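Q: A reviewer asked whether we had any structural model of the full assembly, not just the individual parts. We don't, so I'm hoping you can provide one. Inputs are below.
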Amino acid sequence: MTNALSDVSFWFDSLGTLPPVTAPPLPEHVDVAIVGAGYTGLWSAYYLHKLEPNLRIAVFEAERAGFGASGRNGGWCMGMAWGVEGLLARPTTRSRGVALARALFDTVDEVGRICQAENIDAHFAKGGSLNVATIPFQVERLKRHVDHLEQAGFGESDYRWLPEAESRERLSMTPNYGALFFRHCAAIQPARLVLGLADVVRHQGTVIHEATPVTAIESGRVVTNRGAVRAGAVIRATEGYTDSIAGQRRRIMPLYSMVTATEPLPPEVWAQIGLKERETFGDGRRVVMYGQRTLDDRLVLGGRAGYYFASKRRATIPPNDPKVVRVKSLVTTLFPILKDYRITHGWGGLMGVPRHWRPCVQWDRERRTGWAGGYVGEGVAASNLAGRVVADLVTGRTTALTELPWVNDEARLWEPEPLRWIGAKAIEGFGDRADRAEFTSGTPSKVWGGLFDAFVR
Ligand SMILES: Cc1cc2nc3c(=O)[nH]c(=O)nc-3n(C[C@H](O)[C@H](O)[C@H](O)COP(=O)(O)OP(=O)(O)OC[C@H]3O[C@@H](n4cnc5c(N)ncnc54)[C@H](O)[C@@H]3O)c2cc1C
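A: Here is a predicted structure for the entire assembly that you could use as a starting point for your response.
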């Protein structure tokens, strides 16, 4: 592992050379062992220390802090998570969905508050988020969604419909027929957040053992490539890399998402595009698109998804990967004004997808082992909330957070190969076909869209 991670993501590249990886001698025993130094593992360590400052906590990381999705994502710190919509849709689960949604809304402010309190310069800007209607029929769909959210108890300070003129004023994207504005979202620089958090956690006294892959987790100990460590509690926070742990091969499907970044764009371009408040933005396509304006005035745009047979992982994704190239071409489709500007970066990272497509914080009180994750592509804020839930559970507290519906909501295992690969490819194909059919016909895709929704919602 080198001290520059320029090929991992633009976010790392912009930081230049990083401090050396730290792999101190292994302790014999710790109170809490955490596997994985992404947001989930680090937030868990942070809040555990806040609750019980005397706990001896160790984090074991296969590569270096932030190497996973936490150092590569699109930088939406969004107060929402997969699975909430499903809870809101059913009268029997609506109140639990509202409780989870409200906890996630507050989480965005919690992340901002801690960045400020702990001097983490993560370029945090809470400008909200735009879900843009890029096909006329989506206008009615999004408006109906706003009504549904109002009925569930959310107000204009949470979600708001922006008619076309107002939406274009905020974001001049082609096309833009109006947008659903969601207030609880901030743009961040992901690598700054995860590295800043790692520093804070180290200052609290937690030891981060980098370059120390864990091969097995058992009740009361973790086994690493450098030996075993006994632990009073073990938390797995390995997301898209979970199959690296013995016995966890089918727990989480690793799914790639691809991202690009332009060169810094001049003020006259931004005067036309908008995003004055660094709003994040996306649209209604199923093969997701997400964008943000960075603090140094680049446009970062992500999207696509990909699964490799038998959960094969790639440490880095090169800028000429066909899926990255497709995201690059989307930049000028949505923003023709950018055709003369360079796209300087392209990369990819692994999201973690559980079989039921919603996050979980799992805790076995008897064995004192647990895990958190399964955020699909929405874990930047959710991992903070999960970290707080982990801290409450491990220290034996019963709180409003430990009553949230994602606690112990564990999914069944994914199918063995080749069924898993066939299923993943089918979902990708249904999503692609539905998006293409809708853009071509201008009407909702009942067949492909229906098939896609049946698998992932
Ligand atoms: C390209 C991309 C774009 C995204 N965009 C957004 C976004 O804009 N907004 C949003 O909310 N979410 C987004 N996500 C999702 C979000 O980044 C993740 O949900 C979040 O970072 C998960 O954090 P984590 O700590 O659980 O996992 P990770 O950050 O993946 O961390 C897991 C860590 O565990 C380590 N590890 C794994 N196995 C072992 C082992 N056996 N031993 C030791 N260490 C191990 C890994 O090296 C890694 O560092 C995106 C994801 C990707 C890939």
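A: Points you may want to mention in the reply: The first strand starts at residue 29 and ends at 35. The mean pLDDT is 95.
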